[in-house]
Amino acid sequence: MKPISTKRAKHLLMILLALTVVHAIVFLLDILPTAWVETVHARHIFPLLRWVFAPCSAAIPFSVLEVLAVATVLLVLGTLGEAIVALCRRSRRVRTWKITAAVLLVIVNWYLLGFGWLYQRQPLADRLGLDLKFDDAAFARAALAEAKATRTSRVEPAPGLDLARIGQLVREAVVRDRGADAPALPSCRIKTVWPQGLLLRFGVSGVFSPFTHEPTVDPGLDIVDQPYVAAHELGHFLGNALEDEASFVAWRACTGSLEPFVRYSAHLAAVRRFWDQAPPKLKKQIQAELGGEVLADWKRSQKRFLSWRWETAAKLNRVLYDRMLKSQGVSEGVKSYAGMIRYIVAWRERKAAGGGKRP
C-alpha cells in the first residue's frame, strides 16, 4: 500500500476541516428543527451508534475512554514538543501536525454526532407530558414524601456488593422502568476509572463517554452513592443529554428497582437536592423525617466525597463545565443538576392525581 502523499493529505485535512466547520455552525446556530433532531437523531442515529460502540466497549474490562484520552494528550504534547524544537532550529517542518489536527477534528464531529445533538432534542417533560410548574405546597409535599421514602427504604448493602454487581442491578432497573415495549438496549458495562478518586479530585462522580458509550463511575464514591450515580450515567446512555433529565430518569428507574439498596440510593440522592432548595423550616422537617441512620449515611458519604476533592481542580472543572453546558443551550449551566426536583415534584403530583403510570 502506497503512503498518502503530502498534497493528498492536505486535501483530506481541508475537507475534514470544512465538514467540521459546517457541522459546528449548523449545531451552534440551532438550524435543524427540534422535531428532526428528535425523530432522526435521537431515535435512529444515536441508538445506532449505541449499538455499534457499547457492545465493543462492554467486552473490554477497562475504560477505553481513558486509553483514548491519554493517547490524544500524548499526541498533542508530542506535536507541541516537535513544534518547539522546529522553532528553536528555525525549521518549518512538523511531521505530526496533520495527524493531530485530523484527530482533533474527528473528535469534534464524533462528539456532536455521538451526543451533542441530544441537547437539542424535545425536552423530556414534553415527552412525558409533565407540567414542571409547581407551588411551595407541592414542593413541600414532594420533599417530605421523598424524606419518608428514604427512611423507609434504608437498608445496609448486601455483603460483597461491588460496583460490577451494582451496575447489573441498575441496568435491570433501567430496563424494567422502560417497559417491555421499549426497544432493546445493547449490552453495556459500568466502567471504573483508574486510579480510584481520579474523577472525584475534580468534583465529578461519574461520566458518560459519547465516544465509546461507556457509563463510568469513580469507585472512590461511598457505596450508598454508587447505584444512583451509575443510573445517572445510564440516563445519558439512554439518550438524555441534559443533567436534570438524566437525573430524573435515574431516580425513576432506581426507585422502581426490585433491589432495596438501589431504591435507597436514589431516594437519598433526591432528598439531598430537595434539602438544598428547602427553606429553613422545611429543612428541619426533612431532617426529622429522615432519622439518625439516614443522616449518618449522608454525612459519611459527603465526608468521603470531600476527602478526595482537590478544590482548585474542582472549581476550574465547574467553571469549564458550566460554560460548556451553556454553549449547548443549557441556560442554567451546572445548576441544571438541581432541576431533577422539578421532575420529581411533577411526577409525584401526577401520580397522586391518578396519572402516575410510567410511559
Give a short overview.
This protein has 359 residues and is mainly α. Helix content is 64%, strand content 3%.
What does this structure look like?
The chain is an all-alpha fold. It has two domains: 6-120, no CATH class; 125-352, no CATH class. Helix content is 64%, strand content 3%. The protein is built from 14 helices and three strands. Strands 1-3-2 form a three-stranded mixed beta sheet. A hairpin with a 4-residue loop joins strand 2 (206-209) and strand 3. The termini are far apart. The model has no long low-confidence stretch (mean pLDDT 92).
The low-confidence runs, each spanning 5 or more residues with pLDDT under 50, are none
Average of pLDDT: 92
* Domain tally: 2
Q: Characterize the biggest β-sheet.
A: 3 strands, mixed
Strand portion, in percent? under 5%
| Topology pattern, helix = H, strand = E | HHHHHHHEEEHHHHHHH
Q: Taking Cα atoms only, what radius of gyration do you get, to the nearest Å?
A: 23 Å
Binned, the helix content reads 55-70%
Termini, distance in Å?
54 Å
Largest sheet: spatial strand order: 1-3-2
- In DSSP terms, counting alpha (H) and pi (I) runs of 4 or more, how many helices? 14
Assign the structural class, choosing from mainly alpha, mainly beta, alpha/beta, alpha+beta, or little secondary structure. mainly alpha
- Large-scale geometry: globular
How many runs of DSSP E, i.e. beta strands?
Answer: 3
